[in-house]
Amino acid sequence: IATDGADSDGWRAQLLTVDVVILCSDVEITKKAEIVGCCQELQKEVLLTPSLYELYCSGLSIDKIDDIPFFRPQYLNPSLERRSLKRILDVFVAGAALLLTALPMFLIAILIKLDSKGPVFYKQVRTGRYEKEFAVYKFRSMRLDAEAESGPVMAGENDPRVTRVGAFLRRTSLDELPQFFNVLQGRMSVVGPRPHAVAHNETYRKLIKGYMIRHKVKPGITGL
């Protein structure tokens, strides 16, 4: 629903034609409250896209200074208990996954060696928790000299640097299987924000406000 422009109240008519309203974080707070109020009257479901400030306020606690009440925001840092439980789950899932995929991984390694020259595994430095750099493991899906001149560049469709076996591995995401070793090492989690190459990370830091919040947790093999 658009809330700007000459017809600033045009959203009222649009409310009658929808079942669910999604409000973006950049909608003015007074306008947001007005829209939510109308949705309540019309029994429309509302979804709010939170800003970073609103995320901080999602777990507010009340404090006092000289009998004056204050709200204390909760920063986006998982507790030790949550990190410990997640670590136990990560070790269990990664260990089971490596046992179940041991034979397929062995066959993939043979196919990679038969298809092109170079090592079976590929290592790339990426940014992890607390912005610490680490080497992420993948099955090699490109030619050995693919990034010799260009450096880290995201692969595109029909990328000539990708090998025949590599194209299949990328299409099925099987090239990511070695990252379960990263999980056992404690550098990654099974579920978490995907780690980017250091050069890409620096670019996104400048373009996306609040981007570095993702480094409060371990990067993952898969996102939510």
Describe this structure in words.
The protein has helices at residues 11-15, 29-42, 52-56, 80-100, 102-115, 164-172, 179-185, 198-207, and strands at residues 20-23, 45-48, 61-65, 68-72, 121-127, 133-139, 189-191, 220-222. The chain is α/β, with parallel strands linked by helices. The longest helix is centred in the middle third of the chain and has 21 residues, at 80-100. 38% of the residues lie in helices and 17% in strands.
Primary descriptors:
two-stranded antiparallel sheet, two-stranded parallel ribbon, 224 residues, 17% strand, 8 helices, alpha/beta
* Helix and strand pattern: HEHEHEEHHEEHHEHE
Biggest sheet strand line-up: 1-2
Count the beta strands: 8
What structural class do you assign from the helix and strand content? alpha/beta
Q: Point out poorly predicted stretches.
A: none
Principal-axes geometry comes out as elongated
Write a short abstract of this structure.
By secondary structure, the protein is of the alpha/beta class.
Please describe the topology of this protein.
Layout: H1 11-15, E1 20-23, H2 29-42, E2 45-48, H3 52-56, E3 61-65, E4 68-72, H4 80-100, H5 102-115, E5 121-127, E6 133-139, H6 164-172, H7 179-185, E7 189-191, H8 198-207, E8 220-222
Helix pairs in contact: 4-7
